[in-house]
Model the fold of this input.
Amino acid sequence: MAVTELFSPAEIGAVARVPVKAVYKVIEQRLPAGFVVRRNRQPLLTRWAALCVVIDREIPKHVPVAVRKDVYAQIKGVAQVPGRNR
Done:
């Protein structure tokens, strides 16, 4: 079984220079299922979720949420390819 790296929203915010509030918004409204793991009711993000947070911050604000979700779903598809989780 592969060990999955998990990161807190604060860690992602600090590294990506994204406000923690924005990280939570992405978690709650935009990420596909499976990118966020909850432990003791606290969200922890996979590395793929961290990538989505950074992308979300860089995408222009006028891009609809539906388009963003489609992009993240494609990233999830890549993440599920065997041998890609390293």
User: Anything to note?
Assistant: The CA atoms of residues 67 and 73 lie 10 Å apart. Strands lie at 36-39, 42-45. The first strand starts at residue 36 and ends at 39. The first helix runs from residue 9 to 16.
